[in-house]
Amino acid sequence: MISEVDLIKLCRKNDRKGQQQLFDLFKRKVMGICLRYASSRMEADDILQEAFIKIFHSLIRNETIEIVSLGAWIHRITTNTAITFYYKERNNNGVLQLDQVNEKNSVVSAESVLEALNEEELLSLIQEMPLGYRMVFNLAIIEGFDHREIGNKLGITESSSRSQLTRAKAWLKERITKKELLYG
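and the corresponding structure tokens:
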């Protein structure tokens, strides 16, 4: 197995075999991130492709930057790529889908919502979330960003971030409750 340092060196030389090895090493992790942010598998594939293009270009262009943790660096680029897709989606749809949920029972803990689902069910529900909810939910709950950081990344206020997270949790709770009533 080739070391990450040697893999970075190969990719910086635009070595196709090195790029393929890097892709093979991180494709599952990157796809997992993409699926959390995307509304469909096809969109996740698009984000994955764009993320790896950015990764390879960045390695070639920025040969002097030191990458302490390749995995963390790739994670950050993938998350930022997903955010870029969010902006494209928002601009294509005109307005963010911010108010698509009834706010009653909106105060719910993230942990109680997440415990009620297996990983596949949670991923499916996250993909169904309105775009604004999905972005804030992923950044806050999955990535661990605070509302100030989320606001800066998405170009919204901290209070909008808090509101979106509350609504996202309520949206999830509503879907989980319906699912439990249907399948008991």
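(Above: one complete record from the training split.) Residues 158-183 form the longest helix (26 residues).
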